[in-house]
Design goal:
Elements (H helix, E strand, L loop, with lengths): L63 E6 L5 E5 L16 H9 L3 E6 L9 E22 L4 E22 L4 E8 L6 E10 L4 E8 L4 E10 L5 E10 L4 E10 L5 E10 L5 E10 L7 E10 L5 E10 L6 E9 L3 H8 L5 H20 L2 H17 L15
Parallel strand pairs: 3-4, 4-5, 5-6, 5-7, 6-8, 7-9, 8-10, 9-11, 10-12, 11-13, 12-14, 13-15, 14-16
Antiparallel strand pairs: 1-4, 2-3
Helix pairs in contact: 2-3, 3-4
């Protein structure tokens, strides 16, 4: 391993995190060892399916299209990268894949919501891959300037081997809903890092939806630029046979009187379906008066699935309003099914209704009607795939 060159901590910034969940950061790929799955942050990831993007695979692919639909007041353009600090969120890559994406992305796709603008319609950017043979790297920056209000949606579709960094920056008093929808074709592989920097009294709703792809691994992190920041992190995922969906979240409560709530829900069906959720909230000494909660729920629909759910809390001060976490993994609730069937609803329809109810609460909280309708349709499509699959037994549905 090359000698590490750590980025200096700016004046007034908090110290780096000393934790096995947070390796030292660096923009240089050589400062990060090639992961082997023995590391804590990689031990649940099927390394052989990464197509070498974690090592030295070529990232110069350009087989993709970008479609943009935004309000005239919103700027959305592909620009050259001046570095350093690219989107100025303060994010520093903590693993080799993110550092490689940072280095090899040949431009910035930047979306800017101007100061005090109130944008009613969602801005939608669709990235559509057309080739899995040569991997591609990208860098997206979303900047909500002070006191603006907007919704930004980034959709991933098609076939690709994709690595990217997404930086989301909220100015003081800004309100932003950011939604990323990972609806790749079955042959796609994506490793994504999304970091949000939330300004004073700003509000962020960060939503991740993962239904497609052979393997999708998303690291989502957030920190605060001052008191009053308010963050909701919502997630939905539906893993099918031989599909691996992994979500790793880090909430850095580094400012006083801030709030965060994490709520991720997933379903699994088919042999070899795999879902991993790792949540971590760090409450620093300076984070007095904060409130935080993280929750992950997994619904196992058939035998042969594997769900891993690990919530973490790291607390450096007890002067807080509240902190907690919850995690559940299980099969259908027999009482729910019995209740529905006792009222004349066939078993297959009863199961469909239970799954819809499982996801509906999260979907309704997104607040983007078009996205909500698309997701309900996607859930219905996933349930159609399960037709004929044997339901999970009591043993097969036990947590991994």
């Amino acid at each position: 391993m090359a000698e590490q060159t750590l980025t200096p901590v700016p004046a007034g910034a908090v110290e780096a995190v000393a934790s096995h969940l947070h390796p030292p950061g660096s923009y240089e790929p050589a400062d990060h060892e090639v992961p082997t799955a023995r590391e804590e942050i990689w031990r649940f990831t099927p390394m052989r399916r990464l197509r070498g993007v974690h090592d030295d695979a070529d990232l110069s692919g350009h087989s993709y299209e970008i479609d943009v639909k935004v309000d005239p007041a919103v700027t959305a353009e592909l620009t050259s990268s001046d570095d350093p600090a690219k989107g100025s969120s303060g994010y520093v890559p903590s693993d080799r894949v993110s550092a490689r994406a940072w280095k090899h992305a040949d431009g910035l796709f930047k979306i800017v919501v101007p100061k005090e603008a109130v944008i009613e319609q969602p801005s939608i950017v669709t990235i559509r891959g057309t080739d899995v043979e040569k991997a591609a790297a990208s860098h997206v920056v979303v900047h909500a300037e002070p006191y603006s209000q907007a919704t930004v949606v980034v959709r991933y579709e098609g076939s690709a081997t994709w690595v990217d960094n997404v930086e989301i920056v909220l100015g003081e008093g800004a309100h932003l809903t950011f939604v990323s929808v990972h609806d790749w074709d079955d042959d796609a592989v994506q490793l994504s890092h999304q970091h949000s920097h939330v300004g004073r009294d700003a509000t962020l709703k960060h939503v991740v939806v993962a239904f497609g792809g052979e393997l999708v691994r998303i690291n989502a992190s957030v920190d605060y630029d001052g008191p009053g920041g308010d963050v909701d992190m919502l997630g939905l995922y539906f893993a099918d046979s031989d599909q691996h969906l992994e979500h790793r979240l880090f909430v850095d409560q580094n400012a006083p009187r801030t709030r965060s709530n994490v709520d991720y829900r997933g379903a699994l069906q088919g042999k070899g379906a795999s879902a991993v959720w790792i949540g971590d909230v760090l409450i620093r000494k300076a984070a007095e008066g904060i409130q935080t909660y993280e929750s992950n729920r997994n619904l196992v629909l058939t035998d042969g699935c594997r769900a891993i759910s690990v919530p973490n809390l790291e607390i450096e001060t007890g002067d807080i309003e509240g902190a907690g976490h919850a995690s559940t993994t299980g099969r259908f609730d027999d009482l729910q099914l019995f209740y529905l069937q006792s009222r004349g609803i066939p078993e297959d329809e009863a199961r469909r209704l239970v799954v819809h109810g499982f996801f509906a609460d999260i979907i309704k909280r997104i607040g983007v009607r078009q996205i909500e309708e698309d997701l309900l349709a996607a859930v219905e499509s996933e349930l159609e795939r399960s037709a004929g699959l044997a339901p999970a037994s009591a043993v097969g549905a036990s947590p991994s």
